[in-house]
């Protein structure tokens, strides 16, 4: 069984890590801001944060998923990741409120991370 190329492991790992950071941002930061109002001004993220995060996630995911697909020929990881990216994009560009943004981006980040985990696992066993 040939080894997984380094760039494949790197992009899947980056994408999974970015999804984890997104989850922490979406779940932990609002909780901290509610619990500690003084942190609100210090931990404020610009509105462009989600657009910038998506601008990183799309190419990293594309490299990882295309490389994995070439190796394992399974569409499930690609489909899960695309659903995740679509939810992240909806949250970044179309959410009417901060609550709606969180409702879209949390499952989006989870779907994206699961898609990349499947991609990595399938590529490793291909």
UniProtKB/TrEMBL annotation:
Coiled coil: none annotated. The chain crosses the membrane at residues 20-43, 49-66, 78-96, 102-120. Keywords: Membrane, Transmembrane, Transmembrane helix. The keyword Membrane applies. InterPro entries: Mercury-R_MerC. This is MerC family mercury resistance protein. It comes from Pelagerythrobacter marinus.
């Amino acid at each position: 069984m040939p080894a997984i190329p380094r760039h494949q492991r790197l992009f899947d790992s980056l994408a999974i890590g970015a999804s984890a950071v997104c989850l922490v941002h979406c779940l932990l930061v609002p909780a901290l801001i509610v619990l500690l109002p003084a942190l609100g001004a210090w931990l404020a993220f610009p509105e462009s944060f989600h657009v910038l995060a998506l601008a990183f996630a799309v190419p990293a995911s594309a490299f990882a998923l295309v490389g994995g697909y070439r190796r394992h020929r399974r569409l499930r990881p690609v489909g899960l990741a695309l659903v995740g990216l679509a939810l992240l994009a909806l949250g970044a560009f179309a959410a009417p409120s901060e609550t709606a943004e969180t409702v879209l981006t949390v499952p989006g980040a989870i779907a994206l991370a699961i898609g990349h985990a499947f991609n990595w696992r399938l590529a490793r066993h291909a």
